[in-house]
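Support case: FE3-S4 cluster complex. Customer-provided input:
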Amino acid sequence: MYLDSEDEKILAGEQGETRQKMLELLVALGKVFGAERLVRIRSAQVSGASYKTIGEYGLAWLSSLDARAVVPAVLNPIGMPRERWQEMDVEPAFAERQQAVITAYERLGVNLECTCTPYYLRETSFGDHLAWSESSAVSYANSVIGARTNREGGPGALAAALIGKTPCYGLHLEKNRNPQVIIEVKPDEKNRSIARYGALGYHAGKMVGNKIPFFRGITPNPDQLKALGAAMAATGAVALYHVENVTPEAKKNRFNLSSLEAISIEPAEIDMLFTGIPVDAVAVGCPHCSPAELVDIARLLKGKTVTKPFYVFAAQGVIENNQKTVDAIEKSGARVFADTCMVVSPVMERYSAIMVNSGKALAYVPDMCGAVARIGTIEDCVTVATS
Ligand code: F3S
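Agent response - structure generated as follows:
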């Protein structure tokens, strides 16, 4: 694997033990995956931020490191809103350990934006090389923006943030970004809502595993693409997908699809995921809400009062830039929380059934929160939360 003179100095320990170990990790990863070189990255997004998932062992490892990020780096959602954890009813003992994790990352120069939608806060462009780790963010970056990132583990993404490079293999290489299976989505009489795209992704991810699908028959907008990709990354391991005439590489490239297997998905297969089970809480914003989604929630909640806990999750920067909309949502009694989500916060474990509008949350809530999950449209979520 080619390393430049700067890399050799880091490997020789001239810039400290942490940077030496981090580069050793990247080189080892590169060798495993056959990378010929490292590539400079524009940003990193680091998972392993919730104390719920990394625990004491992860915290001790983070605390032992001594270096600073050399590219913009953000964190994945943590287990609580940094500023409003008491309002979310987070246990003080958990909050204290979560704060220790945050402090450890801050010392490493990682920006404390804790979100799975870093693309709303920092410009990410077609062709950028990244080292992102949260699977829905990886899917959005690759598929919707046309940037290039593998699905990094937390340590790999952190190492890339501290070194500014990542091994150049997998989805960093053009030749590995071609479609591998066609999905024909049959016409659907129902409105293709964000939730319905999430359900489509939930179903499709199970069918394609880690292949790169090429969709036909749909014309999703960016929020719908976000929902589709997040769910496929959860039930499968899809890190890149294309949608005919919609996503940037599908518009730019002439893929040769002639030899690919084609799968078709009927509306009835999606309908089956929409159950009417009773729930005791509603949670939306998986992935974190866009400004447009917040506007939609505020419109639907106008003049209403929630009768069940209604959680809305979004990035802190998105909340700050849309404070009036957030205030309008909270007037109903719903709460818009930053930094965390329905899957990584321990608070959600107190509910036995949670309604979501996300295919990814539908997949993760049962295992991560120990609750039954029900998917519905945002209109259904508001109706259930206010009746
Ligand atoms: Fe984001 Fe949490 Fe969903 S990290 S994608 S809101 S599970």
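Residues 17-32 form the longest helix (16 residues).

Case will auto-close in a few days if no follow-up is received.
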